Amino acid sequence: MKFQDQVVVITGAGRGIGYALAERFAHEGARVVIAEINLQTGQSAADRLGARFLPLDVRDARAVDAAVETITAQCGRIDVWINNAGVAHKGLAVDLTPEDWDADIGVMLSGAFYCARAAGKVMLAQGRGSMVNIASVNGLSAQKARAPYCAAKAGLIMLTKVLASEWGERGVRVNAVAPGVVMTDLVQEGIDQGLVSESAYLSRIPMGRFGALSEVVEAVLFLASDEASFVTGEVLRVDGGWTAYHLFYPFEKAF
Ligand SMILES: NC(=O)c1ccc[n+]([C@@H]2O[C@H](COP(=O)([O-])OP(=O)(O)OC[C@H]3O[C@@H](n4cnc5c(N)ncnc54)[C@H](O)[C@@H]3O)[C@@H](O)[C@H]2O)c1
Questions:
Q1: Would you call 174 helix, strand, or coil by DSSP?
Q2: Is 120 domain-assigned?
Q3: 198: in domain
Q4: How confident is the model over 20-50, as pLDDT tens digits?
Q5: Cα 195 vs. chain centroid, distance in angstroms?
Q6: Distance from residue 255's CA to the centre of ligand 1 (Å)
Q7: 107 lines ligand 1 (CB under 6 A)
Q8: Ligand 1 centroid distance, CA of 89 (Å)
Q9: Do residues 111 and 59 lie in contact, with contact meaning Cβ atoms separated by under 8 Å?
């Protein structure tokens, strides 16, 4: 049990990648806190895993500060914090509203910053801690109809590097994982809306398949653990080759 008795907080862990992380950390002996905006999924995830549920909208900086206070009061410390909460507004840039823009930036960039700031203070006082930000291949390479999502994830990657630089000598590591396409409700919603097809995704991925939740989980676990004790400011791609590959269709048609 790699995380025996460690306090691990995961935002947006009511479903998808966050839930898979909560399940695995619980299995590794951690005291898991699910910080989630959706009361129903958050509570039932916590019940299933024997975890704590903390209702939280990461866009609300004061609520984040209060949540961190509650966690430290109840658990005494924070060993691992994972910024996972996410939303994805899709549409060409000229068609998106300021509200669409604010939604993605608010959850995945500002929200991650509010959490990092509050949890970081606790970890710095402890002289120990590990933060992992769930970024995306969309923070490294552009995708049409994803302006706010790509901008939020690119910002999150740079935030990761700044925090790693500021906190490195004080025992707190900050890293990011950049998943490619993993079939969760978030991805399925985009397919259902007809914005992208499953076959288009698969043809873009050199490994020819979607990532498994467990493959993202393994990368996060490594970065969160002492096995990565000299790793900070890293962006670990778990993308089946997505960012290595630049599709050049007219040429590749021949192969
Ligand atoms: N699925 C993929 O292919 C993929 C690829 C790359 C990156 N990611 C990233 O992984 C993370 C998880 O994605 P997922 O596919 O599991 O999505 P998901 O939609 O299944 O889960 C996201 C969770 O975040 C919660 N959430 C949303 N807004 C919140 C807020 N304001 N405060 C607290 N919680 C909030 C939701 O209620 C939900 O439980 C996201 O950051 C996403 O951008 C996913």
A1: strand
A2: yes
A3: no
A4: 999 999 999 999 999 999 999 999 999 999 9
A5: 23
A6: 36
A7: yes
A8: 12
A9: yes
Distance from Cα 18 to the centre of ligand 1, integer Å: 7
- Catalytic (active site) residue 149: yes
Res. 170: pLDDT tops 80:
yes
Catalytic residue selected from 19, 114, 149, 201: 149
Is residue 250 in a domain?
no
Q: How many domains are there within the chain?
A: 1
15 Cβ below 6 A of ligand 1 = yes
158 CB near ligand 1 (under 6 Å): no
**What are 76's two structure tokens?**
């005494």
pTM flag (> 0.90) = yes
Is residue 130 in some structural domain?
Answer: yes
Domain that holds residue 141: 7-180+216-237
Which residue shows structure tokens 């076959």? 199
3-state SS assignment for residue 184 = coil
For residue 159, give the CATH number of its domain. 3.40.50.720
Residues β-bridged to residue 34: 10, 53
